[in-house]
Amino acid sequence: MTKICVKNANTMCDAALAASSNLGWRVVLKEKSADILMHSQATANALVVDITTIKPNQKVSKIPGSSHVAKKHVLADVFSRASKIINDSEDSNSYIEEFWPKTYSLPADLDEVRSELNKNKKRKKKRTLILKPSDGSQGEGISLLQTPSDLKACMVTRSSNAKSVVQEYLPAPLLLPAEPFKFDLRIYVLVRSVEPLEIYLCKEGLVRFATSAYEKPQRSNLSDVMKHLTNYSLNKRSGEYIHNDGKTSGGSGGEEDEDLEVVADVVLPEDDPHEEVGSKRTLTSLLKTLQRTHPDFDKEDFFQNLVNLSMATVKAMQPSLVSSTKSLSGDDEKAERMLSGQCFQIYGLDVLVDERYRTWLLEVNGNPSMRLDHEVCNTGGSGSEEGRALDHYVPSIVDECVKGIVMKEALKIVDEGFEGAAEHYIDVSGTSTISEGLECLDIIGDVTAHYAATFSRGRGGEDNRNKLTLSLFRRVLAKFREEKGGIGVRGMNSLGADTDLAYQRWDLDRRKKKGDDFDVWCDLWDFYDALVVIAKLVGVVGRNDYEKLSALLK
Q1: End-to-end CA separation in angstroms for the chain
Q2: 258: which residues sit within 8 A by CB, 6+ positions away?
Q3: Half-sphere exposure of residue 383, counting CA atoms within 13 Å on the CB side?
Q4: At what angle do helices 545-553 and 72-90 cross, to 10 degrees?
Q5: Strand runs labelled E in 198-278
Q6: Mean per-residue pLDDT over the chain, rounded
Q7: Is 199 helix (H, G, I), strand (E, B) or coil?
Q8: Cα–Cα distance list, 463 to 460, 541, 553 (Å)
Q9: How confident is the model at residue 166 (pLDDT cuts 50, 70, 90)?
Q10: DSSP secondary structure of 434-470
Q11: Please, where are the H alpha helices in 91-191?
Q12: Other beta carbons less than 10 A from residue 546's beta carbon
């Protein structure tokens, strides 16, 4: 019998307990006696103790580096880099641009954002941008922008170097005929293995509706968050929010055991969780509605779009996850074990569907909520957002259905493998139609290998970053020169002023890009840039960075 420990599961605890009961697993108190460890900590450091002591046959529900790469400004940089590599290598537009809205990072791209907003003065149809603080959550600090004054107002309340992203606002969301409310999807993606990459998409998910009828952005409604934002944390306070409440029951049972923490007796909800009503629904219910109200909607195409989006997203994140894991483990054998399935994770992808049924990724959540209940307002509140205080939690039939499926089948796939283990999951790695188009990103795997080898003498901090000093820069350069038939490591002192100047320019450039995030450490993408500089110093030629690195790393 598989043993699972939920001591550090936090908000994942209820879903993990329900899944364990349905699977017939034993829940234990001590991590050392468990086969699977459930963790909800958001930082890589929270896993350090477990990873340094974890047994070869144990698995943990967090992949190092996930919390960092899922930050809004970091993810934006990852997609920007990946898109450039794809464009450079294929002389074509990156597939990433087909599902990731045009995105700017602040403060680095502040002038570009101002310029874009200034252009609205001459436009009949104003282009709208949406600003999201990188450290924000639950809809906090989000603003719609149409003028430089809008941007200035947002910046007043934040540090000039605070990290944010500004995205193109998608003005034509798909709406339901009888319910003109904007909605988005929370889809769940399981990464069972990072290297080799194993990705599974759950066909069940959440649909979250805004609570005011949608109108295209204009000056009069830019601040009406209930029209434009679908965040549950914002809309649940609205007097128009409709809970799809159902009756649920539960209890406890099972034989006593000194290693047994709890065994939950989970009973499926008596009511139908797939009813086509409520401000939060199942993806199944939405698909039923669309197939009835939109004759041209193709369910197979829809899921293929989600499969491709999931594949491209995780593939772009993969290099950061690999480098973080290798840096954190400090041991090649342990890192290989962690990357090949010992560490797994469920990611929450927030997706908007437009009126042409195209799917757009809004953000990635490395620690998606797995709560099975929801908050309700007290009966004495008014219908306004300010007057409705949240009073207590009640079971949510929709959350129990969706998250129960997501967690149960994900754990079954982790424990048994995909074949025959999952009814609601799709093998993304085996069904994506764009996997071949992303092969050029494997160049980052080669960079990662050199990165890990270069910094093998030390470990990084929370973000798994390492120090690249001038001395170490010279040593890496000398190593590549030796491989290319040059002077070699023994001739380091003869590298000259050009090397020092190139290093200083690289260091100055990353200082400008990182702003307040800068310190003496460098991450994978810093090292990528350093290798591009080294390629030039070694004498490697190419039309672009991709070709230079390909030649350098051969």
Answers
A1: 47
A2: none
A3: 5
A4: 80
A5: 198-202, 206-209
A6: 83
A7: strand
A8: 7, 33, 25
A9: very high
A10: STGGGGGGGHHHHHHHHHHHHTTT----TT--EE--H
A11: 110-118, 148-156
A12: 20
Tokens of 135: 């450290």
User: 253: pLDDT confidence band, cut at 50, 70 and 90?
Assistant: very low
Q: Among candidates 36, 39, 33, which has minimal Cα distance to 7?
A: 39
The rounded distance, in Å, linking the Cα atoms of 341 and 334 is: 11
Amino acid at 374: H
Host H or E run for residue 193 = strand 183-193
Q: Enter the DSSP assignment of 341.
A: I
Query: Which of 459, 444, 453, 456 lies closest to 526 in space, CA to CA?
Result: 444
Pairing of strands 103-106, 164-168: antiparallel
Could you tell me which residues come within 8 angstroms of residue 490 by beta carbon, excluding any fewer than 6 positions away?
none
pLDDT of the residue at 50 = 59
In angstroms, the CA 318 to CA 66 distance is 10
Q: Say how far apart CA 116 and CA 121 lie, in whole Å.
A: 10
Q: Which residues contact 493 (CB under 8 A, 6 or more apart)?
A: none
Burial state string for 116-146 with b = 16 or more CB within 10 A and e = fewer than 16: bbeebeeeeebbbbbbbbbeeeeeebbbbbb
Q: What share of the chain is helix, strand, coil (3-state, %, to 5)?
A: 45, 20, 40
Sequence-separated (6 or more) residues with CB below 8 Å from residue 528: 81, 444, 447, 549
The amino acid at 500: D
Task: State residue 60's pLDDT score.
Answer: 93
Which pLDDT score is estimated for 48? 52
At residue 393, does pLDDT exceed 90? no
Using CA atoms, how far apart are residues 170 and 167, in angstroms rounded to an integer? 9
Instruction: Flag the least confident range among 146-155, 206-215, 429-438, 457-466.
Output: 457-466
467 is written with which tokens?
């120090």
Q: What is the 3-state secondary structure (H, E, C) of 95-119?
A: HHHHCCCCEEEECCCHHHHHHHHHH
How many other C-beta atoms are found inside a 10 Å radius of the C-beta of residue 550?
Answer: 18
Q: Tokens 């993810």 sit at which residue? A: 75
Query: How far apart are the C-alpha atoms of 138 and 322, rounded to whole Å?
Result: 29
Measured distance CA(37)–CA(224) in Å, rounded: 42
pLDDT in tens, 420-431: 778 999 999 888
Q: What burial class does residue 93 get, using C-beta atoms within 10 Å of its C-beta: 0-12 exposed, 13-18 middle, 19+ buried?
A: exposed
